[in-house]
Design goal:
Strand content: under 5%
Helix content: over 70%
Number of strands: 0
Radius of gyration: 16 Å
Number of helices: 4
InterPro entries: HSP9_HSP12
Shape: elongated
Pfam families: HSP9_HSP12 (PF04119)
Largest sheet: none
Low-confidence stretches: none
Length: 105
């Protein structure tokens, strides 16, 4: 169960369980975007308004990011850049499929 406006824990678990090599470009891009949105929502939501599980998860994630020296803005920017890259790859793949030829890898 997750707090309103946050990414559901079962969705997070299923995303982690499936290797990236088995995910489409669209799935990978969607995950990057929804992860970034969830992180921003977590940063904006006051601690007292979070459920126990959501608060523990956010605290653990924040501690991990601080240990790596990353801010939420840095991480969100990385997610957005990665999502853009995956979406561009998906567009190239679809375009090459429609117009013929091999997609770039």
């Amino acid at each position: 169960m997750s707090d309103a406006g946050r990414k559901d824990f079962s969705e997070k678990l299923s995303e982690k369980a499936k290797p990236d090599s088995q995910k489409s470009y669209m799935e990978q891009g969607k995950e990057k975007v929804t992860d970034a949105a969830d992180r921003v929502a977590g940063a904006m939501q006051p601690e007292q308004d979070k459920g126990v599980a959501q608060g523990v998860h956010d605290s653990a994630k924040k501690g991990k990011d601080e240990a790596k020296g990353e801010s939420i803005a840095d991480t969100a920017g990385q997610y957005v850049d990665a999502a853009k890259s995956k979406l561009n790859e998906a567009v190239e793949y679809v375009s090459s499929s429609v117009h013929g030829g091999e997609p770039k890898k």
